[in-house]
Amino acid sequence: MSKIVRIRETTQAVTNERLWEAGIDRQIRMVELKDISELLHLEQTCFDPKFYSSLLTQSAIRHLIGRGNGIILLHKQEDRLTGYAQIVFRRNFSAGRLYSLAVHPDFQGKSVAKLLFKSVEQTCKVLGANTVLLEIREDNQSQRHCYEKLSYLPYRRVTDYYPDGCAAIKMKRKID
Length: 176
Hints:
By secondary structure, the protein is α+β, with helices and mostly antiparallel strands. Helices cover 28% and strands 35% of the residues.
């Protein structure tokens, strides 16, 4: 499978092989059409729509697989989807945005998220991005602490960001 992305005015093809050659763990691969149902189930298991308004949909996943300027990386263990990370790129921007990351509750605390984070950063670097951006709910202090341990730094607070009125903390990490 090949995926076209555009970052920093450069259009390039991304394949699992290219990512694996760059050092990404072979348990990580790009999403395919056959993964949509399982991915939607994981999304519904991990995120409550009362708190998150932009959950993945079948059409959004299909768009990302096709022409969307982003990638969804999956982690599977014994043919079971354990987690995913969605990265979105902007054409004239030198950063990748970690739009979403989820780990199945049965696999939380087992380094799946850490592996996905590392894979996101490696993918961004391979594609020429020099920064990874993300946002987190202000009231999610434990997750914010985890991000800070991974060298993500807060740079902005956005009020009323989530559907329930919670603010977001925007964070970033330089990767070059």
